[in-house]
Write a structure and sequence with these properties.
globular, alpha+beta, six-stranded mixed sheet, 266 residues, 23% strand, 8 helices
Length: 266
């Protein structure tokens, strides 16, 4: 065996892979035992929540499309895709305290209780070539990250950002944020105007970090895109440490390949 193989993942494959790797992070394991983990809404975070619940053997079924606030969705025949909101059912964000989900009313008050070792998990809409993620924000208060980022940074709380490489953007998000804003642009051809909020302090977990966290390997992003239903796919070259590790990776990726397509609320 050459122990070097390409895997082509669609966005649903990527979300499941990234979510599974989150469980393996040592800081997540520690926070599940001793601290707090806050999971904000998002399509990738819906998979993270599912994996955390499974790991904790907590029985809770939910529609992943309900764990979303803003989303980019098809615009229909003769229209562009659009920045939009989840107008269907929307379930609450989730806070774990020592591995148990607890009810809360005010996320700002809860994040103010966070201390060293607690974790905030937030997805993003863009990842620039410097590895900085950024979030589209259409709400007047800046949404989840707009209301909480100052507290998180002031306290030095770790923010983990699970994000697929399909969201790579060419320009520096610290520059493009200056051109955007709900009051700084014409309404898009479809959907709602948004600002862009970078998260330069985030711990970014893409498919690359995911595989390198779980296995002894090096991973390279070698191509993107596809047609006929493979749009949004990314091609990864995985270079495994040895034959045994390549076999483990193959077995794991066979499971990932069976992941069904994510279904949003449109």
């Amino acid at each position: 065996m050459k122990n070097r193989k390409v895997f082509v993942l669609n966005p649903s494959h990527s979300r499941r892979l990234i979510a599974k790797s989150i469980i393996h992070l040592p800081q997540i394991q520690q926070a599940l035992t001793e601290g707090r983990i806050y999971i904000s809404r998002g399509s990738t975070n819906a998979y993270v929540l599912e994996e955390l619940l499974n790991f904790l053997t907590i029985s809770r079924e939910f529609n992943k499309g309900d764990f979303v606030a803003g989303q980019i969705i098809p615009g229909g025949s003769g229209h562009f895709a659009k920045w939009w909101v989840n107008k269907g059912n929307r379930i609450d964000e989730v806070l774990f305290v020592k591995g148990k989900p607890i009810e809360f009313e005010d996320r700002v008050k809860e994040i103010r209780k966070f201390t060293q070792g607690d974790i905030f998990i937030k997805g993003a809409n863009a990842l620039d070539l410097h590895g900085i993620p950024a979030v589209l924000a259409g709400g007047k208060d800046g949404g989840t990250i707009g209301t909480l980022q100052g507290i998180i940074q002031a306290k030095g709380i770790e923010l983990i950002c699970p994000i697929g490489l399909e969201k790579l953007v060419f320009h520096n998000v610290n520059e493009t944020q200056l051109l955007m804003g709900t009051e700084n642009m014409d309404k898009p051809a479809e959907g709602i105007p948004c600002g862009l909020i970078p998260m330069p302090f985030a711990t970014v977990i893409t498919e690359i970090e995911a595989l390198e966290t779980i296995f002894e390997c090096e991973v390279y992003h070698v191509a993107s895109g596809g047609v006929g239903g493979a749009e949004g796919s990314i091609s990864l070259l995985v270079d495994a440490y040895d034959d045994a590790e390549m076999k483990r990776i193959n077995s794991f990726m066979e499971e990932i390949a069976r992941e069904s397509q994510y279904q949003p609320n449109l």
